Every structure is written in C-alpha cells, then in structure tokens.
Amino acid sequence: MLPDSTLHARSLGSCLLNIVASPAYLQRHGSPKTAEDLAQHVLVGFTHVESLNQWPLRHAEGDRLSIKPVISASSGDTLRHLVLEGVGIACLSDFMTNDDLREGRLVCLLKGANSGYRQPIHAVYYRNSRLALRIQCFLDFMQEKLAGYIY
C-alpha cells in the first residue's frame, strides 16, 4: 500500500537498464570509456525523479552513478526520441530500447560497467472502486503478456 491509502501498487516485474546513444551522437562526440567519462557528454535524464537519474554503473564511489541531466523530460519515450535524434546519452529500460539496439539505431555503452540493477515496474491504481475487480483482471492479463519482456 502507498502513503495515499486509496492507492495500491502491484508489481509487474522488473527490467534491465541500458546506457544508450545513437551512432550519430557517438560519431560527433566519441564514446565514453568509463562511467567518469560521462561528465564530458550531454546526458539526457528524467525531470523531478532523482532515482531515475541514478544510472546502474560501477564507478569509484559505488554501483549507482548520479547524473545531472543537461536535458530532461518526464517521459521515457521522449528521452528515447531525443537519443535517437543524436541529442545525447540516456539510461533507458531494455524493453524500450531492444528493437533500436538490434536495428543499429542505438548503441549500448559501458556494458562492462553496468551493475545489472533491475528497475521495478509497478501498476498503481485505486483499489477502493467499483472497477477494482476489472483492474485486477486487466493486470493479471498484462502481467502474463509482459512476461516475455519484463522479468
């Protein structure tokens, strides 16, 4: 249960996070070799959610690197499009970037430094409503369908 007692969160699974950039960005700015090299790059991150700006990279101070994005947005899809356009480097979920990586539109960076952290994915909903049973059935359906994409 969440602090607002009318809201509930249900875990749907988790996903890996990848540090990605477009080939065009890397051609213009070069590829970072270490987590510390990211300080010399344009980092694209999330607005107002500090935990999403802690990238899963091993470095001298631990397994999570806090970044200060030069450009930020509240939507992962918006960040993905910015990265595809060559604006900068971002940390995005594997289910969001797998097709782009496979097709060569994005390049995965710093694989050896990735700590393997899995980002939890939750559905948040009002439980005390007449729709609660329908919502639970929908979430059961979604969890089954997402099984191949998130773990």
UniProtKB/TrEMBL annotation:
It comes from Pseudomonas savastanoi pv. glycinea (Pseudomonas syringae pv. glycinea). GO terms for molecular function: DNA-binding transcription factor activity; sequence-specific DNA binding. Residues 3-146 form the LysR substrate-binding domain. One of its GO terms (biological process) is DNA-templated transcription. It comes from the Bacteria. PANTHER family: HTH-TYPE TRANSCRIPTIONAL REGULATOR (PTHR30537), TRANSCRIPTIONAL REGULATORY PROTEIN (PTHR30537:SF20). Coiled coil: none annotated. InterPro entries: LysR-type_TF_proteobact-type, LysR_subst-bd. This is Transcriptional regulator, LysR family. Belongs to the LysR transcriptional regulatory family. Transmembrane segments: none annotated.
